[in-house]
Amino acid sequence: MFENLTDKLQRAFKNLRGQGKLTEEHLDAGLAQIREALLDADVNLGVVDEIIAHIREKALGSEVLLQLSPDQQVVKIVRDELTELLGKEVRMQFASRPPSVWLIVGLQGSGKTTTTGKLGKWLGHNGHRPIVVSTDVYRPAAREQLAQVAKATHTPVWPGAGTDKPLEIVRGAMREAKLSAYDVVLVDTAGRLHIDDELMNELSTLKRELAPSEILFVADAMIGQDAVRSAGEFHKRLGVTGVILTKLDGDARGGAALSIRKVTGAPVKFAGIGEKYDAIEQFHPDRIISRILGMGDVLTLIEKAEKTIDEKQARELQRKLEHNEFSLEDFRDQLKQIRKMGSLEQLMGMLPKIGPFAKLPKDTAIDESRLKVAEAIINSMTSAERDDYNLIDGKRRKRIARGSGTTVQEVNEVLKQYNEMRRMMKMYGNTMKGKMRGLGKLRGGLSN
Amino acid sequence: MITLFGKPEETVLERLKNSVAKTRTELSARVEQLLTGDRPVDPALLAQLEAALLSADIGVGTTKEVLASLRRQVTEQKLVGSAALKLELKNQLVAILAAAPVPRNGDSPAAVAAAPRVIFVVGVNGTGKTTTIGKLANRLRAEGRSVMLCAADTFRAAAIEQLEVWAKRSGVELIKQKAGSDPAAVVFDGLTAARAKNVDAVIVDTAGRLHTKSNLMAELEKMKRTAAKLVPGAPHDVLLVMDATTGQNGLAQAREFTGHVGVTGIVLTKLDGTAKGGIVIAISRELGLPIRFVGTGEQMDDLVPFDAKTYVNSLFD
Lengths: 448, 317
What we know:
heterodimer; A: 448 residues; alpha/beta; Four Helix Bundle (Hemerythrin (Met), subunit A); Rossmann fold; 434 Repressor (Amino-terminal Domain); eight-stranded mixed sheet; 8 strands; 56% helix; flat; B: 317 residues; 51% helix
């Protein structure tokens, strides 16, 4: 959709190839591209201009590394700047004496109720005993919605029946929490506009009554320039302690994360990444930076890959690649691992749209059932065949097809893919090794 | 014939203006400050203008285009002074919004004669679809139409209950099934009932969905096919509900929903806040989609027909 920042920068710096040094003029051309990319990503204009000014200063200063190409230099400085702005991952706050109260606030439709349900589930999984309560006495069926969400997530809910006064509702919930030893009370509040004086005052009252350990501002990842105004006002009135960015499973770039952080100083603590109640994760600043810059979620991909692929196995694979011993059996293991890593579509979305991945069509839909078919075909081969695919002649192909309940064409297809992968892996085998090492270094550098 | 849009009556026009004016933001304040009186046009003025447009979520592409045209006219001496510049800027924005043709589908003789007229309300999560439907039903009722609501958001918790409240408020019938049932089946039931009872219009509430989820978009297509089988040409209107706080992602939303289910118009909601919803200008420019209504509050009558001039004026005046 948006032109990739990397492409833009590469174009802006095209004439610089071969020149080691970054001149002021060239820098400004590059910064103009970065400015547009940040604006396209919905970072607030004021914040963008501040960031750009800061980057410019830094780039012209002494921190420039001459061994990087000019566009790499600029990308690195931008990354560093955004990383510094977003800060580190932060832990959730609990009261020293339970029950702790987390107050969930935000504009209408940002996803407060769904998020409350997800937090309830998350807390339950992390050894807490949460209870949820809704003070939304305004929107039709809002309390009913939280009750249904709570039921779906097996979280106790305080119905607050018999009153439609938010203060009375939360008092009841607090009594219940103390009586039944719930250690976290999640208070879902009505969506409201930051300029609605009456409703904003209601939140102040709730805050005074509850002394919450967390006041969490829920923000839609798709929000634009106005984010600074709404978040700023909520912060001014309440003192927001954390931000939850929702609907990050879409294709919004989420630049609001930067705007909100800038104006509230509060860290983004969670990200909502789907409609299911376990689709919430603690927020990783480095990932959203890749996303804002349009550089793909490389870090997430690497992390996922690290978790799934046994390191020893990876080393063995590396050795095999180097010695050209990548057999059909290894191919099958690879297919299995790909399936283990989760939905392929999800994985594809994390790849940067650059380099070897640039030409992938946007909606590359991969049929996971085809992976299973390929596995079945390889399972129907003898181990001699798996070690040396040259053995597999026409007769054997027919047998394999019969054995796996497929057709000879499908067997041919798998063999073709195997050869393709073998070729590709040989090509990438060595460069990937170098790249992973490089990224490791980069990560180390960022956490300093 | 059901007029779903048109010239707003005076009071409504005033209301929109007031609701936007009461929360007058930097944009108008800035532009006002820039353009009061008549001063010569200089690069600084144009830069400040750019900032004002970007702050309204109009987007880099559209802002660049509009500014390039203004610059050209300044260079060619066609625009002299800030007052002329302001007028021309407004005219350009109105022209972009007005250039959006009203899609034929909803206004063909067949559609106008269609009984019932079928209106799909779609959008990403949390934009205000259900609330908009409540207001729209009330509006059509006030015009003397018989209206039926169809609760095809069977996914979100308590969505059906929420729509039920709105149906009661505006005194219209609601067709529903159990939560979790197939939304296309609810559409089937709804349209069958609407035909039998000979109502003028059926408004179908759909679950919020991100435009990037292909399975959910396919579900919407299925609902559309079901509707077309029961009522010729249905759905006659597909209204995309968009939150005024939406940033540049609004363009992708409009593009995807149009690609999958043929959006015929946009409803811009939550315009009573400080957000301007400028992304609709970019959407008009790129996709030629008309904006039909704006939502300005939580009350039943807080839905007014969109008027390009009023909208642009309320941004600047």
